[in-house]
Amino acid sequence: MNPTGATYAGKLALITGSRRGVGRLVAEHILRNGGRVAGFARGESTIDHPGYHHFQVDIGDPASVQQGFAALKKVSDAVHIVINNAAVLTSQYAMIMPPAQAQAMINTNLMGAFMVSREASKLMRKGKWGRIINIGSMAVSLEPIGDSVYAACKAGLTTLANVMAKELAPLNITCNTLSITAIKTDMLAQLPGDKIDAVIAGLPIPRYAEPDDIFNIIDFLASERSAYITAQTIYMGGVN
C-alpha cells in the first residue's frame, strides 16, 4: 500500500492534451501523488513541476506522434499509464458541418488515440505492465444534436479500447474507457450553457462533474486493483 501522496510512485503517465482542461487537472493530480507525467500537446507547457516533461505534439498527425515518442524515449524508457484525453470539438448540424472540422475531430479524437496507444504499448510490452485509459464522453450515449462526428469518434474510442484490450491482455496491459459528463473546461465553454444545463438536469445524478469524480476512477483504473478489469466503459453521472 502506497502512503498518501505516493499513489503513483515509480510510474510515468503519458497524458495527451495536458495543457488545459481535464488533461491538465489529471496531470497535476498524478504529480501531486508521486508520479511523473509526460504531456503531449500542440502548445507550450502550462505546468511547472520537476516531474513533468512536456512535448509539443499534434496527435492528429501520425508523424508528430512518432517524433514525440522518439523525444520521450530520451527522458524515459518506460511508459506505465496512458490517458488519451486530447480532443477537439466542433458542434454543428451535420448538413452544415465543415468537412475540414469533421476530419480534424477524426484525426485527433480517434486516430490520435490509436497512434498514442500503439506507440505506448510497444514500451509497455517491455515491462509487461500497462494501463491505457481513454477519456470518452456522455455524447456517445446521449447523442446530442450537433455532435454527430464528435459522438461517433468517442464511440469509436470505446471500440478501439475494447479490441486493443484483447490484443494486449497477454502483455498484462489493460484498456478501458472513462466516459465523463460535463465538467467546466475551455472546451465546454464553446457550447451554449443553457443546453448543457438541460442535459445535466436530465441525468440520474443531476450535477456537473467535479475533478475528484474523475480522479477517483482514474486512480482505480491505473492501479493494481483493476488488474482483472479490461475492455470496460464507465459512464459517470448515471449515463448508460
UniProtKB/TrEMBL annotation:
Keywords in alphabetical order: Oxidoreductase
Superkingdom per UniProt: Bacteria
InterPro entries registered for this protein in UniProt: NAD(P)-bd_dom_sf (IPR036291), Sc_DH/Rdtase_CS (IPR020904), SDR_fam (IPR002347)
PROSITE patterns: ADH_SHORT
Keyword Oxidoreductase part of the UniProt annotation: yes
Single Gene Ontology MF annotation: oxidoreductase activity, acting on the CH-OH group of donors, NAD or NADP as acceptor
Family the entry assigns: Belongs to the short-chain dehydrogenases/reductases (SDR) family.
Protein name from the UniProt record: 3-oxoacyl-[acyl-carrier protein] reductase
Naturally occurring in which organism (per UniProt): Duganella sacchari
